[in-house]
Amino acid sequence: MLRLATAVAAILLSLLTTLPAAAQTETTAVPDTGPVELVGVVDVLQVSGLIDPIEVNSIRKALDRAVEDGSLALVLQVNSSGATVSDEELASLVADLADAPIVVGVWIGQSGASVSHEAVMLGAGVDLIGISPGSRMGPVGDEFAGAPVSGRFAPLIGRRLSDEAAVDSGAADVVAATLGDFVLAFEDQGLMTGISRVVDPGAEVPKRNLLVQVRFSKLGLVDQLMHTVASPAVAYLLLLIGMSMILLDYFTAGIGVAGMTGAVSLLLAAYGLGVLPTRPLGLGLLVLAVLAFAVDVQTGVPRFWTGVGILSLIVGSFTLYSGLSLSWLTLLVGIGLMLAFVFSGMPSLVRTRFSTTTIGREHLLGEIGVIEVDVDPDGVVNLDGALWRARTNRGTPLRRGDRARVIAIEGTVLEVEPEEGGAIDYREMRGRRSEAETG
Asked: How does the average pLDDT of the chain come out, rounded?
């Protein structure tokens, strides 16, 4: 038991130390190779995903903090495919980085990272751009903030370059395999001095250790949540989940877990869609799809509105964003789960919620109703002003407007037959038999 308790405590401690917090920072010290006197601090901020207002704000805060603390440099570790903020807002941030009183650099890393479209322009105002092996730069558009893209980023117009190709074209300055190598490049490029020491001068390639403290910063928990919500795939899926849960809660009568989940999902989706370049047409089609599905869920039979819902769902998913595209995996998950929910999950849940025995409904047996939706073999019958799902008892189709008699009840489904020419009710047969015997 003592060993088990110790292991559990160690696991909990490791989880707590990995959770992000507001203004969270991590510090990496210089390897212990003897007495070392650190010469300063280099701040590092990770920038990933689309550059949205939260990322812009975090970069400005990191820059202000680095300047106030007297840091030697600020490094932006970037892995981004574009921006959701306007070109003007991004250009203002680039100008702030260019005017910073400290050294500012952009490192595209770690290996396999990519920076493209508007996110490339983040490097326009920095002192040094590094790229890790296996990473990519570009493409970019031919204009940014109303001006033609020129200078170092011109080779990236409409092109995606590998690490070495980016350096050869001048779009990047150095290939740096690690963040430490990139910080050392500040010294190699003459931007800073005295930030390293040689620990093995006799080696063919002398090894250097940093004499600076590298301080990492990340988004806080709430900022990270909102930044994640503002990604195209997450906002799209939250929208579908939210509308589906509200629909489910409506048909299962009462505000419960589904309704609360749907409300929270829709609130988060609203923020994400508000930040992203959302097309009103695409959003309207997705809302129409759910409303169309609701019509046929209420009748209990997939009909015209189900087709409208499927078409609206597909077209709305492809046209939701302007200038951004959802991955095929996201589209398959969103459309596939929505259709599975409507055709399988929703009817089952509704039947489970409302299905009861026929106790208290015996008075419906023998009643005459009017067919509202063709019963062939399933449809809808209007009985005393209420709509009921119906099923024909012998495969005989009943058309809209026909009169039909209820002969059995199964949960919320009525089994019906034509008013004329149907089987004689067993109670009528018993009554006729009794009359014949007494006659």
From this structure: 82
